[in-house]
């Protein structure tokens, strides 16, 4: 590719990450996409000026998932002995869910077109999804005689519940945008030409909040997925004690009492 595989734009506390291999429908393998995504996510995580991240694809697709032609290459690591193939997943596509899951800022997938296989899973790894009317979702691994090796099942179960996740996983069928809304896969469906405008509207609401509180709230939600209630309550109490000491908390209280708009500084 002559163009960079991933574009990163940061403005008004909103980071926009765009998969940028439109001619091949933005696959995450068979190019430099995966390394570029990991680099972009690391930059977002390390930047205190970012409060929310949008993940989208360059039209016409969101992400075609893995490159099937690469899977058919007899020299591909995926066709070699099992231990090498397993390690290739650990060192490759499985780094994406780790990176997205560990982001402290909320993430919104702006699904502008088909999101298939690992592309579908990439949307599930985000906290929220907003779809264009042209969006389609497909957990299609079973159609190729394989399974989601990128932790897609882990995210789909938690986002959609067992029954819906089972239906999509075992059928390998495509889901149009309107059905995705009914299934709870997306928050809303909008006209294609309004997608990024609408996603940025939602992102701007998050970006207007106290930056530290947003990141800690995201961390707390992540902890809730794996903790039992007593441990979670202890964690919440500790986080809350820290938040009470921030300047943004004091500013929020002062602004409320003084009936004015708060000025948050991230401190």
Note the topology.
Layout: E1 6-11, E2 14-19, H1 33-46, E3 52-57, H2 68-71, H3 82-91, H4 95-101, E4 107-111, E5 114-116, H5 118-124, E6 128-132, E7 136-138, H6 152-160, H7 162-171, E8 174-176, H8 177-183, E9 188-190, H9 195-207, H10 211-224, H11 229-243, H12 247-258
Parallel strand pairs: 2-3, 3-4, 4-6, 5-7, 6-9
Antiparallel strand pairs: 1-2, 7-8
Helix pairs in contact: 1-4, 5-6, 6-7, 10-11
User: What would the CATH topology of the largest domain be?
Assistant: 2-enoyl-CoA Hydratase, Chain A, domain 1
CATH class call of the largest domain = Alpha Beta
Radius of gyration (CA) equals 20 Å
- The largest beta-sheet arranges its strands as 1-2-3-4-6-9
| Beta-strand fraction estimate | 5-15%
Q: Given the helix and strand composition, which structural class is it?
A: alpha/beta
| Average pLDDT over all residues | 94
Uncertain runs are none
